[in-house]
Every structure is written in structure tokens, then in C-alpha cells.
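Lab notebook, bench 4. The sequencing result for the construct came back, and we need a structural model before the next group meeting so we can plan mutations. Quick request posted to the team channel:

Model the 3D structure of this chain.
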Amino acid sequence: MANRPRPTRPPPLVPKPGQVKVVQALYKYDAQQPDELSFDEGDTLYILDMSDSNWWKAKCGKRAGLIPSNYVSEHTESIDYPLHEAAKRGNMDFMSECIANRVSVNGLDKAGSTPLHWAAHGGHMECLKSLLEVGNCEVDVKNKLGDTPLHSAAWKNHAEAVQMLLSFGAHPNIRNNDGKLPVELTKDPQTAALLKEAAGLTSDRYREGYVDDEDSD
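Done. Here's the predicted structure in C-alpha cell form:
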């Protein structure tokens, strides 16, 4: 395929610090210079620097280099929340790529949720563990509903996810915007038992008023 011409359009917006633009390649490109990056049509590209409107610095897999911007930007939209999407779908390959390419594990989507919220919500244990093992991962971020990832895991009755979050320091006594603790959102006795123990909620009144109701279903 013949080389496509350099684009002649106004410079695009530069991503905010700590965020990486993720796009798919529209065309195959063979590097012409040592500092350029070769890629195939459909490859996922992580844009690291857009200061030059014609040539962006990008990574593809473990390789990095300059790419012609018009190979990826004419008729495609960026994946706005790539790590959130990976966590939501339990896609470990995509998640590993995102983390390796410095996509923030603490980024917020439109609901104010982090990727950890979505991994917990889906009970995707590999994704959850991968996120939690990133050194700066924040485990108690509240989204717009006031829910932490622990609330998300509890609401979906994912006992294993709850246990993992607790082991990484998640606090069970945080209330959401409705004044609810994570333990008050679950309908699973095992999940409830883990959260009650962690939160110190062991009174007979609580046990009879909550767990017994669920056992009677």
C-alpha cells in the first residue's frame, strides 16, 4: 500500500497527564525511519504524545515509535475508558496491555467509577487482582452513588471479590449516598458473613434482623 500523505488539520487536544489515548489502526503502516513504528490494520495503539499534530508517539505491544496520525484518526473514535472496558468485560489481555501502557488504574468514568468498581461488579477475579497489585491502586474510591468497589462486589454477591478487596485493605464501614454499608447491599450469607466480621457487626440484633431473613427465603 502506498504511503498516505501527511495530514493537514489543526492540532488535536493533548490527553491529560496520566491518561493515554487508545485507538485502533485504520491502515497498515510500515516504518520508513528508525524512530517510526510499524503496525497492522486493526492493531490497538496507545498514544503517548500528540504534541505534533502529524506524527504521534505511540506504543503497540512492547514497541514504541512515531506514527502518522491520519492512519488512526480520520474515521475512528478513541476508546474513552479502555481499562474500565477491560475490567467490565473481564478481558485480561486488554487489561494487561492497558496497565503496561500506563493507563491510570484510578481513572474515573462518567459514573465516577474506577476500573476496580467494574471488576468487582463483574466478579472478574483475575482483573481484580491485577488492578489491586498496581502499587497506586486506590481501593476505597466512591463513585457518584457513593459506592466503593466493596459496595459493588457486595451488591452482586461476589464473596470471593469481597474477600480479596478486604485483604487489600478495603474499608467495610464506608457508607454510600443512601447511608448503606456494603454488608447491607448483599443477599448472599457468605458475603454478609465476611463483611460483618470485617466491619465488627456481630450483634444478635443485626444477625437476626439481616442474615435470618435471607436464610428464610
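DSSP finds eight helices and four strands in the chain.
Will bring this to the meeting.
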